[in-house]
Amino acid sequence: xxxxxxxxxxxKFALNLTSVDRVIxxxxxxPIHSPRKDVMGAINIHGDVIPVINxxxxxxxxxxxxxxxxxxxxxxxxxxxxxxWVDSVKMVREAIEKELIPAQEVMPELDAVEYVLxxxxxxxxxxDLEKLLHYENKK
Length: 139
What we know:
Elements: E1 2-8, E2 11-16, E3 20-24, E4 39-45, E5 48-54, H1 55-58, E6 71-77, E7 80-86, E8 88-94, E9 100-102, H2 103-106, E10 113-118, E11 123-127, H3 129-138
Parallel strand pairs: 2-11, 5-7
Antiparallel strand pairs: 1-2, 1-8, 3-6, 4-5, 6-7, 9-10, 10-11
């Protein structure tokens, strides 16, 4: 499986590359009123209005101001698209089976984490975006 690795603070996270459209630098965001606390606003990408998701809020990471070095990861799910606000995007790489530990074996309380990826540097949490956004929507 190919994954996109990104960071928020010093923690590494990953998404399955099949759900990623592209990565962009932050663009002007229009504030919108949403019942979801994690929706920061919306951006216009080639005529498509895409909600921007505050990943720090979803993952219980301390807040910071957005800066020009941050990134938006444009993703698609079923019939919708979202932009995920992250600190940096590190790389695309293949995750081989022996590196992947099912998250339920290590952290059963983290429903939105599909796998824990162990490499030489540190642990990377492979996020199931559908579960993460669906869980937050149920709160």
